[in-house]
Amino acid sequence: MTMDVRAVLEFATVTRGLSLFLQAVLNAAIPDHEADAFRPPRTEEPLYLDSAVEWLLGGLSHWDAEHFLFIAERGYLYEHNFAFFPLYPVVLRGLAETLLWPLSCWLSVRGRLLVAVALGNSALFLLSVVALHALSRIVLQDRRLALLSSLLYCITPANVFMTAGYSESLFAALTFGGLFLLEKGFTFRACLALSIATAARSNGLVNIGFLLYLPSLHAISQIRVYRTTTKGHIKVFHYIWAIIRLLLTSLLGTAIIALPFCAFQYYGYRTFCTPSVSLERIHPALLSLAERKGYRVPDENGPPPLWCMRPLPLLYSHIQDVYWDVGFLRYFELKQIPNFILALPMATLGIMAAYAYFQANSELCLRLGLWETSATKGLYKPTPGFFNPRVFVYVVHSTVLLVFGTLCMHVQVLTRFMASSSPVPFWISAHLLLLNEPLLHRRKTSNPNVQLQTHSRNGCKHTPQNPIIALLPHFKTCSPTTQSILGYFVSYWVLGLALHCNFLPWT
C-alpha cells in the first residue's frame, strides 16, 4: 500500500467515524420534522438493544433510506418501492442475516439492518475512495491531483447520502472500480462491475457510454499501429478483426450492463401485471397503510394497473411519472428556486469543468478525442493533469449527467447524483485548488507563518500528506477559490447531516 493510498484511507476512516458520531448527536439534539415521508408501521416486536440502536443510528433511516430498509425487511410490497433498485437492500439483508446474525437475540431485523447500514456504507465508502484514487492516478497521470481529488471526495458534499441508508456508496464503489478496470484493459471484468452497478442504481445505464468509447479509442489506436507495421492482405485482415472485436465488445458489454435493469423491470411486470399474491397474505398494518396512502399492492383478484397495457410496460418510468412527478422541465417552477440554489454549487463545478476542458482542448473535443489530423498530430500527448486527453470522456459523461439532472429530475438530487457517479467534480475542484491556492504551491508564500511546507532532514521541502487538513486551520488566509470550494464541501458535509437526519429538506 502506497503512502497516498494509506493517507486517503486514514482520512476516509476518520470522516466516516465523524459522520456517524455527528448524525447521532444532531439527530438527538434537533427534533424531527413532521415530514410527509414514507414511514411504514413496525410489525416486529422490539428487542433489548433496538431502542439504543435506534437512538444511535436512527438518523440513517430517514427519507428514501426508509424505502431501502423496508425492502430489505419486507421485499417489494408497494408499487413505488420499485423506484429503488434491489442490490443495496440485498446487501443490507445479507449483512443482517450473516455477519450480524449473532445479535439476533438482542436486535430485531430492523435493528440489525440499521447496524448493517452503518458498517456496510462505511466499508463501501472506503472501497469507493480507493477505487477513485486508482482511477484518478491512471487517467490524470498526476499523483498530487489524484491525491487531492480523493481527499476532497472524503468530505464530499453528498456525505450524508454516502453515510445513510442510500445506495450511493455502493454505486460509487462499483462505478469507479469498473471504470478503473476498463482503463486497465480488463473489459469483461469491467462490464461485470458496471453491470452490478446497474443493479444498484438506474443511472448505471449511462456507463454504457464508457464501454462504447474507450474500446473504440483502443481499436483506432490498434488500426493506426497496423497501418504502419503491416502490409497488404495482412493489414486488411487486422483492420477487419479490430472492427469485429469492437462490435462484439460493444454489443456484449451493452447487454451485460443493461441486463440487471431489464431483469428488474420484468420482475416488476410479473409482480403487478400477473400477480400471484392475495391481499389476505399481506400484514394488516401494511395493507392499512396502503389503503390510507393510496399505495398499490399486488392483488391476484384485482385488475392490472393501466401501465401494464402500454406497448413497453416499464414500471420504473411509470413510478417516476406518477409518484415522483419526474419529467422534462416539470421542476421549473418558482417554488423550486430554493432547490435550484441548493444544486447550484455542483452544477457550477460541472459547467466549469466542461468549459475549462473545451477551452484547453477545443480541437480534441471537436474530434471527440478519437483521431488526429495531420495538423494536430502529436499535439495531444498525454500530459499530466485535468486537461489530459483521457479526461475527455469523463467530462462528457459529467456534462450528460448535469444536463439530464437539471432538465429531467428533481434538481436538488444533482449533488448526490453527480458525486456518486462521476469523478469530475472532484477532479476540477482539486485542479482549481492547485491552480489558485498559494499555500499548496511548492514556492514560498508572502507570510511564512501560513506556509504549508515542512522541512525534511535533508532540508528539502514537501507538502504535507493531507493538504485538506493543513488548509482548514488557515481558511481565512486562503484564496477566494479555496474558500469557496472548501466552504462548499464542508458546509454541505455538516448541513446534510443536520437536516437530512431530522427529516428536514436536503439534496
UniProtKB/TrEMBL annotation:
Keywords: Endoplasmic reticulum, Glycosyltransferase, GPI-anchor biosynthesis, Membrane, Transferase, Transmembrane, Transmembrane helix. It is found in: Endoplasmic reticulum membrane. It comes from Seriola lalandi dorsalis. It is an enzyme of class 2 (transferase). InterPro entries: PIG-V/Gpi18. Mannosyltransferase involved in glycosylphosphatidylinositol-anchor biosynthesis. It comes from the Eukaryota. Belongs to the PIGV family. This is GPI mannosyltransferase 2. It is a multi-pass membrane protein. GO terms for biological process: GPI anchor biosynthetic process. GO terms for cellular component: endoplasmic reticulum membrane; mannosyltransferase complex. Its EC number is 2.4.1.-. PANTHER family: GPI MANNOSYLTRANSFERASE 2. The keyword RNA-binding does not apply. Pathway: Glycolipid biosynthesis; glycosylphosphatidylinositol-anchor biosynthesis. The chain crosses the membrane at residues 82-101, 113-133, 145-164, 170-192, 204-226, 238-262, 340-358, 391-411, 485-506. GO terms for molecular function: alpha-1,6-mannosyltransferase activity; GPI mannosyltransferase activity. It holds the Pfam family Mannosyl_trans2.
